[in-house]
Amino acid sequence: MSLVKAKKHLGQHFLTDKRIAEKIVDGLIHTDQYRQVLE
Asked: Taking a C-beta distance cutoff of 8 angstroms, is the pair 16, 1 a contact?
């Protein structure tokens, strides 16, 4: 992924920390309030 450069002026931001991704997923798993999740 280091070959891909985000164009932040286009709103592109890449999540590179696996721990943060896991926290996001953990926050969504324990609820039935979400029918869809958009990336």
From this structure: yes
Q: Supply 14's token pair.
A: 């890449």
Where exactly are the structural domains of the chain? 14-39
Residue 2 pLDDT class (50, 70, 90 cuts): low
pTM of the full structure: 0.51
HSE-CB at 32 with a 13 A cutoff on CA atoms is 0
CA distance 19 to 15: 10
DSSP states of 1-39 as a string?
Answer: -TT----GGGT------HHHHHHHHHHHHT-S--S----
